[in-house]
Amino acid sequence: GDSVTQMEGPVTLSEEAFLTINCTYTATGYPSLFWYVQYPGEGLQLLLKATKADDKGSNKGFEATYRKETTSFHLEKGSVQVSDSAVYFCALSAGSTNAGKSTFGDGTTLTVKP
Amino acid sequence: DGGITQSPKYLFRKEGQNVTLSCEQNLNHDAMYWYRQDPGQGLRLIYYSQIVNDFQKGDIAEGYSVSREKKESFPLTVTSAQKNPTAFYLCASSISGARQETQYFGPGTRLLVL
Fold first, then answer.
1. Fewer CB within 10 Å, N or C, chain A?
2. CA-nearest residue of chain B to A9?
3. The pLDDT value given to residue A47
4. pLDDT tens digits for range B12-34
5. How far off is chain A from B41, nearest CA to CA, in Å?
6. Which residue of A has its CA nearest to B4?
């Protein structure tokens, strides 16, 4: 079945440091890939997404590129801020036989210190 | 403003009791989902619905039931058969359930067992 493997956390960085959170996936067909962010006590919200190979999703300084050859969708940001502290989830949504079903990674907790 | 509302924010269940979590959306979305989130883990799909009066089991449907009588509402009942119900429950929706669509999440309900 489909699966998502995320870099284990927690991750602690100083403000303005470079961030990478690794995400690899296993899926049949051509999934869409997502990064969602969850702030304490809240639901998830979309950070960025990519729907086909070589697409780059970007938002609020975060980027991720859909790499079919390495089945990866790593999240990066050049300079993190304290306000980026949250839990980040990588997710995929598979093809027509599983329409509507997404698979989520376990989440990576990021703490940014001033 | 359009969005998803979940109520209550906290819910307490006594042993042997069924409890119902509310989820309402005014986004005019056809697809709705229920997820369970346990500490340090990703989201696991309980049930999903892509159209009124139809719903499908997710990966962990045992001990749960749903209904979809109206497009905007997708209540989840946690039955007494669910032996370990303590978790954070998230409701989400998307336009039609297609794989490339973003899911929009509610703020969640935390269920605790007395």
1. C
2. B40
3. 98
4. 988 889 999 999 999 999 999 99
5. 4
6. A43
